[in-house]
Structure prediction request, 147 residues.
Amino acid sequence: MQRRDFLKSSCNICLLGAAGFALPKLTGCSPALHSTGVYKTNIVGNKLEVPLALFDNTSLQIVRPMGWFYDIAVEKRADNTYGAILMRCTHQDNQLTAAGAGFTCSLHGSQFDKSGNVLKGPAEGRLQQYKATIINNNLLIEVPKTP
Prediction:
């Protein structure tokens, strides 16, 4: 094997190894992801429509309104009511990630519980909540035109 081929092969192996190491860590930089997936929908008349069937196997669903940067976390509570929270950190408007029993900001480490209350700063204000109403087999979430 010639020196040039050896160096090329070595560099390719190093790049693949580095990518394999770094890629799982980079998913924290993406918008909020949750094991249930993300339900994408349009806003019609300042309302989002979410099928209740999405909550058959999970109590948390991430909803992505088309045209919005921030997702909405929708939780089915034990009393069969629903809560909808904008996943935007109140400290510096960073996208939040669903983590454990709440939400985390990757920018400065703020943490919020599943009701949107601050658990750890630097954020001081609770998360924006939206009214959610059950109509037939759907959940209607009232939202502003832009968050």
